[in-house]
Specification:
The protein contains 10 helices and 7 strands. By secondary structure, the protein is an alpha/beta fold. The chain has a single domain, classed as NAD(P)-binding Rossmann-like Domain (Rossmann fold, 3-Layer(aba) Sandwich), CATH 3.40.50.720. It has a 7-stranded parallel beta sheet with strand order 3-2-1-4-5-6-7, sandwiched between helices. Helix 2 links the parallel strand 2 and strand 3. Helix 3 packs parallel to helix 4, helix 4 runs parallel beside helix 5 and helix 9 crosses helix 10. The mean pLDDT is about 95. Bound molecules: NADP nicotinamide-adenine-dinucleotide phosphate.
Amino acid sequence: MNKVVVVTGATSGIGLETARRFAATGAKVVGTGRDQARLAELAKEVDLALTMDVTDDTSVKIATAAILKRYGGKVDVLVNNAGIGLFKPWEETDIAAIEKVMAVNFYGAVRVARALLPALIASGGVLVQVASVAGRRGYAKHTAYCASKHALVGWSESLRYDLAKTEADVVVVCPPAIRTPFFENAGYMSFEADHPGLQTMPTPEVANEILKAATDRPDTVILSNRAKLLDALNFVSPPLLRRVQVYK
Ligand SMILES: NC(=O)c1ccc[n+]([C@@H]2O[C@H](COP(=O)([O-])OP(=O)(O)OC[C@H]3O[C@@H](n4cnc5c(N)ncnc54)[C@H](OP(=O)(O)O)[C@@H]3O)[C@@H](O)[C@H]2O)c1
């Protein structure tokens, strides 16, 4: 694969495995994040590891300018993956907390997309938005997180219309719960404590699905059959889903 692929949030979890997966195809992979120690490790596995805080205009401008300069303006795939969670009841989720989650998961993703969309349009490339099943339905104690992922899904669906006359595509990938450091960072007790007995997809498999999505370019990919079933149930009867949803 002779492609230039940018993966945000590539210092951990899904982003790290995705960067590795694309690198294994021979793509020139740029992985970004904030943690300097993990960026130094990432640099051994990808073409370029760059500091980029997606919530910061200047940081995104500097990083994306460096990417465009290094690859002569060519970017084929942007995997907008950087994200954070928040697990709290609505009463404990004040506006500042909601803004913090929106700043990374929604405005951050939009900021990076806006910076690289001209290059993606020029190459007929693909924007892969790592949303979530929480971008398609509600969950208990997830008001801020669900809002941020629904916003990302809505933005992406509208963007498709704006890009209709171009060769560029927008793909929304919706993983279910995946065991990564995400949960501890988000205020869960732990993955096991908060998702007892839940079978989850290993991160390398999620990365495979993201690579496949970037190649096949469907509008939306919901990972796992269970998540597809619950998504369909939410479409048919949200009250019924609320009754059967095991995760409270
Ligand atoms: N794990 C799940 O169950 C799950 C399910 C559905 C969707 N997702 C989504 O998948 C994506 C990756 O999650 P993960 O599970 O892999 O979590 P993770 O292991 O905690 O990784 C999150 C990544 O995002 C980066 N990040 C966070 N804030 C950032 C910021 N302000 N600027 C730049 N990078 C930032 C982190 O890098 P630095 O700390 O180095 O900045 C890290 O590389 C997220 O968008 C998440 O919402 C996860």
